[in-house]
Design brief:
The protein has 2 domains: 1-67, no CATH class; 68-185, no CATH class. It is built from 6 helices and 5 strands. The protein has helices at 39-42, 48-52, 59-65, 103-107, 132-142, 144-171, and strands spanning 33-35, 45-47, 69-72, 89-92, 100-102. It has a 3-stranded antiparallel beta sheet. It is elongated, with a radius of gyration of 20 Å.
């Protein structure tokens, strides 16, 4: 069951509407999601009001990527300079040469596997009638060792995620074609970073 976004998880802006749809889970504003303009890279979609409170982009793009420019590949004879594959969409780098790379190559440094799931550590799956947080809380009380192992795995995963983000920023700090600087090198920031 989908749950209404009562407020933005990052900046606490509240949903402008509190009238629920007939299913009592999504308000009419939150039931209509909009793709982030960087959707080809981030895969994010959220209510328009949540995009509006972050300059028109999802939170992750506002914090990490900023505005991206996409272009369609001109032909199959126009391969990506990194993987040499023909790809339909490219992300334009912001170097002086205006080089571009395919979306898959641009996404590679940002890709992240899902974190550890509590079910892998012995937590029972929540049924449709149960709230997942309630099931996890009950599991933590009845099986504290399993819960602690899951928590430790989540901490390790978060540390790996921090390292991966730093590596992604380093990988995208220079254009892969001309090695010219990009906004991700920290020297030419063209968007406002938002703190969590």
């Amino acid at each position: 069951m989908a749950v209404c976004y009562p407020k933005c998880a990052w900046c606490s802006t509240e949903c402008p509407q509190d009238v629920l749809d007939s299913n009592d889970s999504l308000c009419t504003t939150c039931s209509r999601v909009t793709r982030c303009p960087n959707f080809l890279v981030c895969d994010a979609a959220c209510p328009q009001w949540a995009l509006d409170c972050h300059g028109g982009r999802c939170h992750d793009c506002t914090v990490q990527l900023g505005p991206l420019t996409f272009r369609e590949a001109s032909s199959a004879d126009d391969p990506c300079p990194v993987c040499l594959e023909a790809a339909p969409w490219r992300v334009q780098m912001t170097c002086e040469g205006k080089h571009d790379v395919c979306v898959a190559c641009f996404r590679t440094p940002w890709k992240r596997e899902p974190g550890p799931q509590p079910e892998a550590f012995g937590c029972p799956c929540a049924s449709d009638e149960e709230d997942e947080d309630d099931v996890i809380e009950q599991w933590s009380e009845t099986h504290p060792t399993q819960y602690r192992r899951w928590g430790d795995a989540c901490d390790r995963d978060e540390a790996r995620g921090d390292e991966q983000r730093a590596g992604a920023e380093q990988a995208l700090a220079r254009c892969p074609v001309c090695r010219g600087g990009s906004p991700w090198d920290g020297g030419n920031v063209t968007w406002k970073r938002v703190s969590k």
